[in-house]
Amino acid sequence: MSQSLCTLSSLFEITGDTIFPGTAFEVALSLAHSTLDPIDILTCEWYLDGLLVTNVNGLQLSGEGYCGEHIVAARILTINGWSGLRTFSFSNCTQRDIVFIQEPKAGFIVKEGDTIAFRVIQRFKDHSESDVTDQYVFSVTGAGYFEGNTYFAAYNESLSGFAVEINASSGQGDNPAPILLQVQNIDRPVRFLSTYDYMVLRLFWQDGRSSGLDMLVGLENSNTVYNGQYVGYGAPSARIPTDHTQNSSAYLQWASDNMERSGEETVLFNLRQLKADNAVNGVKGDFFHRDFAAADFLVDDIKNTGELGVYAIWRGENIGTSFFNVELTTYKGGEMELQGTSYTNTGGNLVDQLTFNLSTTRINSIYLRDYYSLAKIRFDMATGRSTLFLYEDNS
C-alpha cells in the first residue's frame, strides 16, 4: 500500500454501536482530522462482510442483516485518489441480559501480595458474551489498590486474612454488582512502596559475627544487560554500571565494607537513572493478531519490570548474635550523596522508611548460592511502583 493510501485512511474512521438489538444497523464515517472536510470526499465505497454494497456512496451505511457478527469496511475517494480500507465490527439481534464482574475460578486462592486481573462481562439473551472491561473503572473497598483492571492485594499486619469488595463503574449507572474477595494471610511480609526515585538499603547489626555482615544487591529479571551483576563485598565493582564514575549516574552503589561486630553496610538504588537510560516501553499493537480484540490495545509492559535481589552472609568466627536489621528508605526528587557509610538526600522528600529484624546463621562463603536471600524488590519503571518481598532463612 502506498504512503498516500495510508495517509488518507488515517483521516477517517467508522463509528457506530457495536451491538444492535434487532436486525437493523447503522454506521457512519467520522472525519478524524481537520484537514479533511465532507466536501473533499467525492464518493465512498462500503463493504459488508467482504461484499461491496451497491448504490450506497454517502457517509452513512444503514440496513438490515442476518443475525450474528459482522464486519463493515469503507474507503473514500478524494482528488488524491482512493484511500485504504477502514474496518468496524458489530453484532445484531442481541439484547443484553446482565453485566457482571467475572470472579476468579473456583479454588483460586488470592494471597497477600498477589495480583489478579478482573474483567467485566456483558451477557446477552442468546447466552453469548462480550468482554467490556475497557469501558469500566475498577476500585476496591478495603486494603489494596487497582492499576487498570489488576488488583494488588495488600499485606495485613495481623495473622488473619481479610475480605475486600471489588467494584466496577462505567460512569453511566449500569454498574455490575460488586463481588467479595477473600485474601489469604501469608507468613512473609510484603509491602507496596509508593513511587520514588531513590532507595537506600541498609543492613545494620550489634554484636554479630567477628568480621561483620556482608551484603550483595543486584538487578535480576530486568530488561537490561546488567542482570546477575551485583554490588557489595566480593563483587567486581562498587557500582553498576561499572563504567559510571559519577555517583549520580550509577544504578546501584555500595558505600563500603564493614568488618566490625557492630556496624552497617549500605547500597543505593537509583531508579530514576535506570528509567532515564532504559526507555519505558509503551508499545501497543495487534499482539494477538485478531481484529478488535481488547488485548490489542493494552500496553505490553513486560520490558518495564525488574527485580532487585538482596543477599547477606556473616564473616569471621561463629560467635555473637545471628540477628540483624534491614532498613529500606525511599526518596522522591533531590540528589543523593555518600556520607560516611550511608547515603543522604538533599532537596528531595522522604517517601517510605521501613525496618525489619531478620536472622541468619549463614557464614563464610564467596558463592551467591550460599548467601541468605532476604528480599526481592519488584519494580515497574512505567508506574514507578515497587513491591517488597521479605523471606525467612530456613537453612
Keywords:
six-stranded antiparallel β-sheet; Lipoxygenase-1; Immunoglobulin-like; 395 residues; 2 helices; 3 domains; 4% helix; mainly beta
Topology:
Blueprint: H1 3-9, E1 12-16, E2 24-31, E3 43-48, E4 51-53, E5 60-64, E6 68-78, E7 81-82, E8 86-92, E9 96-102, E10 110-111, E11 115-117, E12 119-124, E13 129-131, E14 137-141, E15 145-147, E16 150-152, E17 162-169, E18 179-184, E19 190-193, E20 198-205, E21 213-220, E22 230-232, E23 239-240, E24 252-254, E25 263-270, H2 271-277, E26 305-314, E27 323-332, E28 335-339, E29 342-346, E30 349-359, E31 372-380, E32 386-390
Parallel strand pairs: 10-18
Antiparallel strand pairs: 1-2, 2-5, 3-4, 3-6, 6-7, 6-8, 9-12, 11-16, 12-13, 14-17, 15-16, 17-18, 19-32, 20-25, 20-27, 21-22, 21-26, 23-24, 24-25, 26-31, 27-30, 28-29, 31-32
What radius of gyration results from the CA coordinates?
A: 29 Å
* Largest pleated sheet: 6 strands, antiparallel
CATH topology of the largest domain: Lipoxygenase-1
Shape: elongated
Beta percentage is over 45%
Number of helices: 2
Average pLDDT, rounded to a whole number, is: 84
Residue windows where pLDDT falls under 50 for at least 5 positions = 283-300
Q: How far is the first residue's CA from the last residue's CA?
A: 64 Å
What level of helicity do the residues show?
under 10%
Strand order of the largest sheet: 19-32-31-26-21-22
Structural class: mainly beta
- Structure summary, number of beta strands: 32
Specify the CATH class of the largest domain: Mainly Beta
Just name the CATH architecture of the largest domain. Sandwich
Number of domains: 3
